[in-house]
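=== RUN LOG ===
request id: a7f3
mode: sequence -> structure
chains: 1
length: 366
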Amino acid sequence: MKYVLFHGPQPRDSREEKFQRLLSIFLELLMKTGGNVAEALRWLTYFDRRHHLTDASYTMGDFLKDLHKRGYLTENTQSGKVHVPSDKALVEIRRQSLEEIFTALRSGALGDHPLPKPGPGDDLSYETRPYEFGDRLENLHLTETLNNAYLNHGLEEFRLTERDLSVIQTEEKTQTATYVLIDASHSMVLYGEDRITPAKKVALALAELIRQRYPKDLLFVGAFGDHAWPLQLHEVPFLQAGPYHTNTREALEMAISTLSSLRVPNRQIFLITDGKPTCIREGTRFYRNSFGLDPKIVNRTLEMAERARRQRIVITTFMIARDTFLQRFVQRFTQVNRGRAYYAHPQKVGVFVFEDFIRNRRKELR
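=== RESULT ===
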C-alpha cells in the first residue's frame, strides 16, 4: 500500500523577511544618497527607530552583517571606505527598479515584441505560407503540408512536391538603440520633490529589461546640466543633481553623435527633463539665461531636433513638471523632430517610458 504524507504550511523565516524588507529600503536610500553607505544606514536607523523595522530577534547590527555576508557590501581599499556597494547590490537595484515599474504598468505582463510584418526571425506566429527557397525546414508546418499533398495528388499514390510544402510564418524582430538622457540640473531636487531618482530608475529598469528580453538591443545613458556627459551603467544609481543649468542642446548632440554611428534600424532618444533649456556652450564658455525662453538657446537646441530628424532618430520627451515655458518649448521641439512628448508625474514616468519603448518596438521608427 502506498502512502502519501501531507505537510502543513512551512513556518516563515522571519529573519529572511526582515532582511528582504530592510534590503529594499536600504537600496532605495543608496540611490537617494548617491551611493553613500554610511548615510543610507543612518537614514535606515532613523526609520527603524520611528517605525520599528527591527526587533530583538533581528537588529540593525544583524542586517549589516548580512549585507556583508551575502555580498551586497564590499570594501574599497583604494578609497579607504569600509563599506561600498558591490556589483551584486547594483544588479539588485536594477532588478528592483524593473519590478517596481512593471508592477505599476496598466497593461499586463510584457513579453517579446516583434514587428507586425512578416520577415526572418525567431518568433512563430502560427500563420502559414507556401515554402520559398531559403526557408528553414524546421519551420515546416507538417499538418498543412500533408493536407496539401492529399488535396493536390490524392491518396492512391502518396506524393510530396515542393509546391505542397507549407511553412510557419515568422515575424521579424527589430534591433533598437536607445539613448536615455537624464536632466541633472538643480531643479530636479528643488522644492522638496525628488525627480532624479525616478529618472534613474527608468534607465536602470530599461537596462534590466533589455538584458532579459532584448539582448540584441543597445542602451546608452547620459546626464546633462551645464554640460553633458555619458554614464556607465554602474554610475547611474548614484547620479546626483547638482547646481547646474539645463544644456539640452549638448545632451542631444552627444546622443545623436553616438547613435548616428550605429548600423541599427531603430534609433531613439528618451529625454527626461523638468525644465526648459537654459544653457548652451560657446567655445570654452557657457551662455546661460534662466528667464523665459531665450531665442538664442532655443534655436540652437532646435537645430539638434532637426539634425536628429534628418538622421531618422526619434526623440521622445518626458516632461516631469508642468512648467509653462517647458511645455511651449517641447511643443516646438516635437514638431521639428516629428517625435513624441508626454507629461508624466515623476513617480509615473517609468510607466510612460516603458509603454512607449514596448509599443514602438512593434514598428520601424522612421
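=== NOTES ===
The radius of gyration is 27 Å.
Confidence is low (pLDDT under 50) at residues 106-126.
=== END ===
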